[in-house]
Design brief:
Layout lengths: L1 E5 L4 H8 L4 E4 L13 E5 L8 E4 L2 E5 L4 H5 L6 H10 L2 H6 L2 H7 L5 H8 L3 E6 L19 E3 H7 L3 E9 L2 E7 L9 E7 L5 E6 L6 E6 L5 H8 L10 H19 L1
Parallel strand pairs: 1-3, 2-3
Antiparallel strand pairs: 4-5, 5-8, 6-7, 6-8, 9-10, 10-11, 11-12
Helix pairs in contact: 8-9
Bound molecules: flavin-adenine dinucleotide.
The site of flavin-adenine dinucleotide has 26 residues, from strand 2, helix 4, helix 5 and strand 8.
């Protein structure tokens, strides 16, 4: 149950509110508006001007309250990432759901989180004390200057206020298989390639978080890396054997489409 609603106008005010027990950030509210037993106070982030989507040099910078649909409509976002965003949620939810809320709640089925993992995105996050977001543990990891790499974020899931994220505008490709064209993927592959040859492959569609299958100086070994990352990935949606085979095909499709 939501017992109080706050809409701070400054970051200092927001952080002060979020440091009180039981207070949590409110993004688009698509998850938080669901009925719940727990008593929470919500701190609406919408007046903090965190909704920009810009390209700066070779980087794309996203504010935490930018909506998923805003990303799709921005010229700063590549078509392959837009494809993944369309799979994340239907239009009405994309119009409200935010970048921060999606990251805070994503599991392994999130196509957007899979893309961010392949892109080695950097998350801007302000740590909050235990209790402020309803947890008893504080996990901050190796946070430097309020930044954390997405790979570490997805493992640690630290308690904090996500204020934004950035990723490089490298060559990028995304492929997926799902039951219907707009359903969440049973398996998806995202591949980034830097001019140096560095190649990073992430797989999604199962588990608690997307999986980093490969991060190499050269693209060799994509096929076995994709297969290995899906071993044991059986759930109610698909079997591991199917995912192993399909991941290898999708990863190679990604690679070939970068050529
Ligand atoms: C009917 C319905 C269907 C849905 N279907 C799907 C679906 O198909 N796929 C899917 O992935 N999701 C689905 N969702 C979930 C939801 O749409 C997404 O997860 C959404 O992107 C969440 O973003 P939000 O901004 O609305 O988060 P909110 O509801 O505002 O918040 C969700 C959580 O994230 C935290 N949070 C929000 N912003 C931040 C921040 N900046 N920093 C730290 N923590 C933050 C909140 O405290 C809260 O714990 C569905 C939700 C509903 C209601």
């Amino acid at each position: 149950m939501i017992t109080a609603y706050h809409r701070p106008r400054t970051m200092n005010e927001a952080l002060k509110l979020l440091r009180t027990p039981g207070a949590i950030p409110l993004g688009g509210g698509t998850m938080l508006s669901r009925p719940r037993e727990e008593r929470i106070e919500v701190v609406d982030l919408q007046s903090l001007a965190l909704n920009s989507v810009v390209r700066k040099g070779n980087d794309v910078l996203l504010g935490a309250t930018s909506t998923l649909q805003q990303l799709i409509e921005s010229d700063a976002i590549r078509e392959a990432i837009r494809t993944a965003l369309r799979l994340e949620a239907p239009l009405n939810l994309r119009n409200s759901g935010t970048v921060g809320g999606t990251l805070a709640t994503c599991d392994g089925r999130s196509p957007f989180a899979t893309c961010l993992l392949a892109l080695d995105a950097t998350i801007q996050i302000i740590p909050l004390p235990p209790g402020g977001t309803g947890s008893s543990k504080s996990r901050t990891g190796r946070m430097e200057k309020g930044q954390m790499k997405i790979g570490e974020y997805l493992i640690l899931r630290p308690h904090g206020l996500i204020t934004g994220l950035s990723f490089p505008s490298t060559k990028f490709s995304f492929e997926y298989v799902s039951r219907t064209p707009s359903d969440k993927p049973l398996i998806c592959a995202a591949l980034s390639r830097w001019n140096s040859g560095r190649t990073r492959l992430a797989l999604g569609g199962f588990g608690k978080s997307p999986v980093l299958a490969m991060d190499g100086a050269e693209p060799d070994g994509i096929d076995p890396a994709a297969r290995n990352a899906c071993r044991g990935a059986t759930d109610e949606w698909a079997g591991a054997e199917y995912r192993v085979q399909t991941a290898a095909i999708l990863a190679m499709r990604c690679f070939n489409s970068l050529q």
